[in-house]
Design a protein that fits this description.
The protein is mostly beta strands. About 10% of the residues lie in helices and about 25% in strands. The strands form eleven sheets. It has a five-stranded mixed sheet. A four-stranded antiparallel sheet has the order 23-24-25-26, with no helix packed on it.
Length: about 625
């Protein structure tokens, strides 16, 4: 296999392809390019732009094993699609043509199908074959039998937020760009820019060594004089210009085959010990040791300092808080940093008075946005945490607040006099409530808010984004309003009837203000393309989009119910929590305990317990699930 493309010279001669050209092979054959040999000495480094993407072990449309790294040396377009995804299908129609235009230059496309035509059902062989047949694709159409490769990538900063999701890899498997639907021109421009590049030289060159002195006449079969004949003379010395290299030499951790056994690094004498880091907290465990030439690579660490490699919260950087009054709440001003929990310390920093074991946590309400959270303290003050890219943490000072609610990237709070103050993103005027208007209650959503005033009639007022008519409130006297999803709003009239307005898609509203579902309701939650309402007994009725089961609450009554994008959560009369819908990113992993209030948004949720502590769950990479301490 002179060109290291996975096809022997004899196979290529028989098929009429060039055995010396790694990008000349039978594109319509039964096998794929396989140049694992070219990847010797290369290692994965991460999941972000500029990093070397870890390998994926996949199954192709013939149900054969397929490793992403066997394509090393090609420019690769890795396309994540699903059978239900309309934009994915639109892009797939031109994929074969794109591949044929550039494949002779060393370009490969891989379609990784994540789900079937039914959302939530993992892709199977039948889906792969149907996809390849539908678009006449002769490049690899694969599925991930482990199911975690796409999930891993979708949590990274490079993720575009939806399918189709496409990565462009250079010839050394480094991630050069990520793209979504509508970015085909930019994607192809990047591919064309990478095609003229070359991967690292192969085979790897031997180190430089001193040649015989000028004028000498060395044995041409043993130039370096080490007593070993060169490969050219039928001997065993693969580096005949370097006496330090040969069949009796020790293998080392570099790009040279020092002992001429044809394998880099095998039995190298200068390996390092790496330790399996199962919980990915940066600390490994002794029982997962690996001798390797590689730099620390996921999921391994260069240390074995973890005391519990199943829990990422426990590691040598874990902060413990003194609990002098033994009430289960820690003092944020008295800490120890160590792996195992010390006596007299707890994992939370929520004690407002560590000298009083009757004091509870300081929080009365919590609200969550897309990547931030805010809390209302019992003393009427506010604190926010998480993302601050749109001044989400620029909350107002003061102790006169009585209610708080967040939209996507903004938050509003109600003062004791009923007026509203807002901060964060002011796109569409979301953070610009009407001045000098006293509200009894209010709720916020994607880029808008709605509130109830003390007026006897027409008492609902909305402000912010109105691209879908979501802030144009129909006449009536309302007891509750909701606009959490942002594209539509709903309200409960004084007779218990529900009225919705705004975007009709998903059946959550109507083309004109109409009562959507007959009934006698007391609470309403207008979420992302679906709506839920509670009647006087707390029994829920939901309608609209239900792709992930987010509009299918479990049986029984709720005191409160909040809808997000693909999941929902409710507060039972006994104070326990239940969540349903998509469980990705831990959205539905609500904690045990007894709670008084909760809020839900796209990726995470939070609730306030009867003990005055905030518990959060779901996606927390921006710190949005970690509330600050109660005391400064």
């Amino acid at each position: 296999d002179s060109d290291a493309d996975g096809f022997t010279d004899g196979e290529e001669i028989a098929q009429g392809t060039d055995p010396n050209d790694p990008f000349s092979w039978n594109f319509n054959g039964d096998g794929w390019f396989d140049s694992w040999a070219r990847a010797e000495g290369a290692y994965p480094t991460g999941w972000e732009i500029g990093e070397v993407l870890p390998n994926a072990s996949l199954r192709d449309q013939a149900d054969d094993g397929f490793d992403l790294w066997q394509l090393y040396g090609n420019v690769i377009l890795l396309d994540f699609s699903a059978g239900w995804c309309v934009p994915c299908k639109e892009l797939a129609e031109g994929a074969q043509e794109l591949w044929e235009a550039h494949r002779a230059d060393g370009f490969m496309i891989v379609h990784l199908i994540t789900e079937t035509s039914i959302p939530g059902i993992p892709a199977d062989l039948a889906m792969q074959q149907a996809w390849a047949d539908m678009f006449d694709l002769t490049f690899p159409v694969v599925r991930d039998v482990t199911g975690d490769y796409y999930g891993r990538l979708s949590t990274q900063d490079l993720y575009t937020g939806a399918l189709p999701f496409m990565l462009v890899l250079d010839r050394e498997m480094r991630i050069q760009g990520s793209f979504g639907a509508g970015q085909e021109a930019q994607l192809e421009a990047m591919i064309e820019g990478l095609l003229p590049t070359e991967p690292a030289a192969y085979p790897y060159p031997a180190p430089e060594a001193d040649l015989p002195a000028e004028g000498s006449e060395p044995d041409l079969c043993d130039v370096d004089g080490d007593g070993k004949r060169s490969f050219a003379c039928g001997g065993t010395d693969c580096h005949d210009h370097n006496p330090a290299a040969g069949p009796d030499s020790d293998e080392r951790c570099d790009l040279v085959d020092w002992n001429c056994d044809g394998a880099l690094h095998e039995d190298a004498v200068d390996t390092q010990t790496l330790y399996l880091d199962s919980d990915e907290d940066g600390y490994g465990a002794l029982d997962g040791a690996l001798q390797t030439c590689a730099d620390p690579l996921w999921p391994y660490s260069s240390n074995a300092d973890d005391c519990d490699d199943t829990d990422p919260v426990l590691n040598p950087e874990t902060v413990w808080y003194a609990d002098a009054d033994d009430d289960g709440f820690g003092n944020p001003n008295s800490t120890l940093i160590q792996c195992e929990q010390p006596d007299g310390y707890v994992s939370n920093d929520q004690d407002s008075d560590d000298g009083d074991d009757t004091s509870l946590g300081c929080w009365s309400q919590v609200t969550v946005g897309r990547d931030h959270s805010c809390g209302l303290k019992k003393d009427g003050s506010i604190a926010c945490w998480g993302d601050n890219s749109d001044n989400e943490q620029l909350f107002p000072a003061g102790n006169d607040f009585v209610a708080i609610d967040s939209g996507y990237q903004h938050t509003c709070a109600q003062r004791t006099d009923g007026t509203i103050s807002c901060w964060g993103s002011d796109n569409y005027g979301a953070s610009s409530p009407p001045e000098d208007v006293a509200f009894l209650s209010f709720k916020c959503g994607l880029g808008a808010c709605c509130g109830i005033t003390a007026d006897e009639t027409n008492n609902a007022v909305c402000w912010g984004q109105n691209t879908d008519g979501q802030t144009e409130v129909p006449e009536g006297t309302y007891t509750a309003v909701s606009i959490a999803g942002g594209r539509h709003a709903c309200g409960v009239l004084e007779d218990g009837e529900v009225v919705c307005w705004g975007k009709e898609e998903g059946f959550q509203g109507g083309a004109s203000p109409t009562a959507v579902v007959p009934g006698d309701y007391s609470q309403i939650a207008a979420a992302h393309y679906f709506t839920c309402a509670l009647d006087a007994a707390g029994l829920p009725t939901c309608w609209g989009g239900d792709k992930y089961g987010q509009a299918s609450p479990p049986a029984g009554a709720f005191d409160d119910l909040r809808g997000g994008t693909v999941h929902s959560c409710g507060l039972r009369p006994d104070g326990t929590l239940e969540c349903w819908g998509s469980g990705s990113f831990g959205r539905t992993d609500c904690p045990e305990g007894v709670y008084a209030q909760l809020d839900v948004n796209q990726l995470h949720s939070c609730a306030v317990g009867l003990d005055g502590l905030i518990s959060c769950w779901g996606y927390g990479e921006e710190g949005q699930t970690t509330p600050p301490p109660c005391s400064p």
